[in-house]
Design brief:
Layout (H helix, E strand, L loop, with lengths): L2 H26 L4 H17 L7 H19 L14
Helix pairs in contact: 1-2, 1-3, 2-3
Length: 89
């Protein structure tokens, strides 16, 4: 099994298990359905790019969701945001 295959399969399983929880976190912190859906896309796109470097992907994804929603509330949710949770690495 190549490293890419391992990363992809591990990430895919994590996504299937955790995407609903990240969506719920975004909703609970004041996001609407659209914000929560965009949040999941953004958070998991960033996480996949850093998959081998993130020590705690659950913490990363949930913290990033909170930051995404807070940022969308301040700036208007249609503006692209980049989530960078504290202690991600």
């Amino acid at each position: 099994m190549t490293q890419t295959t391992y990363v992809d399969s591990g990430f895919a399983a994590f996504y299937r298990e955790q995407a609903p929880a990240v969506f719920d976190v975004a909703l609970r912190h004041g996001g609407n359905q659209n914000i929560a859906a965009e949040c999941v896309d953004t958070v998991f796109s960033q996480l996949k790019g850093n998959w081998l470097h993130v020590r705690d992907p659950i913490r990363f994804s949930r913290r990033a969701a909170i930051l995404y929603v807070r940022g969308s509330q301040r700036r208007g949710w249609r503006r692209p945001l980049r989530c960078q949770p504290v202690g991600a690495g």
